[in-house]
Amino acid sequence: MTAAGAPTPHVTVLGATGFIGSAVLRELAARPIRIRAVSRRPGPVPPAGPAEVEVRTLDLTAPGAVREATEGTDLVVHAVAHIAGVSTWRVDAGDTGAERVTVGVARDLVDTAATRGGGPLPVVFTGTTTQAGLTRHEVLDGSEPDRPAGEYDRQKLAAERLLLAATERGVLAATSLRLPTVFGYGPHSTAPDKGVVAVTVQRALAGQPLTMWHDGSVRRDFLYVDDAARALTAAGDHIDELSGRGWLVGTGVGTPLAEAFAAIADIAAELTGTRVPVVSVEPPEYAEPGDFRSVTVDSTAFRTVTGWRPRVGLTAALRHTIAHCQGQLAGRGGGRPDER
Description:
This protein has helices at 19-28, 65-70, 96-116, 151-168, 196-205, 225-237, 239-242, 257-272, 300-306, 314-331, and strands at 10-14, 34-39, 52-57, 75-78, 121-128, 139-140, 172-179, 181-183, 210-212, 219-220, 222-224, 246-248, 255-256, 278-280, 296-297. The chain has 340 residues and is of the alpha/beta class. It has a single domain (10-331), classed as 3-Layer(aba) Sandwich (Rossmann fold), CATH 3.40.50. The strands form 5 sheets. A 7-stranded parallel beta sheet has the order 3-2-1-4-5-7-12, sandwiched between helices. The N and C termini lie far apart (39 Å). The model is unreliable at 333-340 (pLDDT under 50).
């Protein structure tokens, strides 16, 4: 809340029409603040609320675009993602387009802040747990060294290091939230989820078998997208305490993929009347070592500082997601959902 007589806070969301960025925008729109929603293409504004929302359409890789996007803002939530193909995160080595988005926008943000005056610019960056690479332990607590294995992970880590180095120099007051497997839809979702959960839900509703690239024992820490958005906004609320380092965010529960897929099949069957099988298949050529690594997140440090806790359990989040996808399918007059 804003104190009486104090200026209304101004928050800029970069990537405001993306999967996570749009969820952050919905969360912030419930506050009495000013929001600049920046994206490459115009997108929907959340339902009427106390926030004043300005939609700014910009290609953030263009010269001067980051400066225009962040002018006069009090806080930047950096949720820009490189989207190509069937997912948001598989990047080929040497993909300069992806690097320009992931690393280049972070560099432009630092350069812009260095000349703006008025003190360090607060920034919340959406990182990923995979920046740590292949560790020996399933439970991540932030003490593990960073040895990213894939190009996407290396680029995310490079962007995070740029922002944190600028914080050490007093240019930014930046923090990075390293998120696990974020997924899901809710009643007001506007952006597509291209992750494994969404694809699996679409297959179940289409009556297709749910395929795993292993025996299903690999564990994932599944974080509902609305809980991820609340974590990012909580980071903005506590930027003074969080800036200068990365923080792990997750549920603390590692769910075997076989269990998650079985739950999807069961819930989808309640709507379709048919339960699809869950089967193991050979992994595709583009599978990476991280696809076979179990991850559970210990976010005790972040929770202690911010008071954040996940509110939506896996089963409830899957029900929200499956209901949303079924509604989209019905709205298209039936047929097979897109397999993204």
